[in-house]
Amino acid sequence: MKDLSQFLSTAEEAARNGGRVLEEWAGKFTAREKSPANLVTEADLASEQAIFETIRSRYPDHGFLGEEGLSEDQGDSPYRWIIDPLDGTSNYVHRFPYYAVSIGLERAGELVLGVIYDPTRDEMYSAVTGEGATLNQRKISVSTIADLPQAMCMASLPIKADRDDVAIRRFLDMIQKAQTVQRTGSAALNLCAVACGRIEAFWSTSLKPWDMAAGVVIVREAGGIVTTCSDENFSVYEPNLLATNGAPLHQSITEALCVASKPTE
Fold first, then answer.
1. 110, pLDDT greater than 50
2. How do residues 120-144 score in pLDDT, each as one tens digit?
3. Is 87 annotated among the ligand-binding residues?
4. Which of this chain's residues are annotated to bind Mg(2+) (predicted)?
């Protein structure tokens, strides 16, 4: 079994390279429509290429899965890198400083490593299974808030969701129960915020594997819990995630989300 710390060093280098590309492109890119309210830029592609080249140069037999069409079979290797070169694209387009590079590593179908880099704050979140999570090499942990009325939460909403969408109902219902619920535009940084205790919970039912892979490892290694919104086993290939600082808050939120999901009479 290869030393995951070597992979971590490569992932951090790749994330910084991707972040550097994003900042070099900032204010100079051309945006094009990918889907309504979901912009992609040339910076996205350039960042992904920088990340891919950094990792591929060290591990040519590994597989890759990325947002911008990156898909490389890992052959006989059990390793696959799951990459989002720019999580928070709309924020980036508008120069709202809440976006990041996200790099996860899967070994034989299990998430084992996560790195998320916020280039605007020069914050590097890192985690390897069984070794804890760090922010700029300092250990981090989830918050200790246990009561939902004291909890700060984040939620992702589907693009241009109808007012009757279950995600909208959940959002509005939880505003009444939590201290506050925010929508920020970067799932990766929301997961990091849970991991370092800045917020207590984040949920979504509209994410892709590259939005979640790295952050899930970081939350778990910081002492948090990741399940589906109905408290079932999480899969990075299913768009259903709830990440919290742990029990008993996790149970309170799953119960509240389930109630809000029921159709209104």
1. yes
2. 999 999 999 999 999 999 999 999 9
3. yes
4. 67, 84, 86-87, 211
Can 4-139 and 148-261 be said to share one CATH topology?
A: no
- Would you state the CATH architecture of domain 148-261? 3-Layer(aba) Sandwich (3.40)
Neighbours of 238 (CB within 10 A): 14
**Both tokens of residue 210?**
């590259």
Note whether 141 and 152 are within 8 A (CB). Answer: no
Query: Is 67 assigned a ligand-binding role in the annotation?
Result: yes
Domain residue spans of the chain? 4-139, 148-261
Q: Is 118 annotated as a binding residue?
A: no
What whole-number percentage of the chain has pLDDT above 90?
A: 74
pLDDT tens sequence across 155-187? 998 877 788 888 999 999 999 999 999 999 999
86 is known to lie in a ligand binding site: yes
Mean pLDDT of the chain: 90
Label residue 61 by pLDDT band (50, 70, 90): very high
Q: CA-to-CA distance for 236 and 154, rounded, in angstroms?
A: 19
**Architecture of the domain spanning 4-139:** 2-Layer Sandwich (3.30)
d(CA 170, CA 165) in angstroms, rounded, equals: 9
Phi (first) and psi of residue 32, to 5 degrees: -135, 155
- Any known ligand binding at 73? no
